[in-house]
Amino acid sequence: MATLNVKNLPDALYRRLRKRARERRRSIAQEVTLILEEAVERSEPVSILGLRGLGKEAWRGTDAAAHVDAERRAWD
Questions:
Q1: pLDDT at 21
Q2: Rg from Cα positions in the chain
C-alpha cells in the first residue's frame, strides 16, 4: 500500500479534517482516503455544448414544433 505525505498543509485545514474524522469515528488517514476516493471517482460534469447533436438520429424526420404541441396537448 502506498504512502502519501502532504507538505505545507494549513493548520486550520488539518483541524477541520481531524474534526470531520472524529465525528465519523475514523482516523484522519481513513477520512482523507475516503475524501480522495470520492473526488477521483466523481464524474466530470458534461457541458451543454458536449450534448449538441446527441440523439439526432432518433429525431430525424420529426417536426420539433409539432412534437412539442402534441406533448403539451397530452398534458391538458
A1: 97
A2: 25
Q: Could you give the CA distance from residue 35 to residue 39 in angstroms, rounded to a whole number?
A: 6
Q: Each residue of 26-68: pLDDT tens digit?
A: 999 999 999 999 888 877 776 777 777 777 787 788 888 888 8
3-state secondary structure the chain: CCCCCCCCCCHHHHHHHHHHHHHCCCCHHHHHHHHHHHHHHCCCCCCHHHHCCCCHHHHCCCCHHHHHHHHHHHHC
**Are 66 and 74 within 8 A, CB to CB?**
no
Answer yes or no: are the C-beta atoms of 21 and 28 closer than 8 Å. yes
Prediction pTM value: 0.55
Spacing of C-alpha 13 from chain mean position: 23
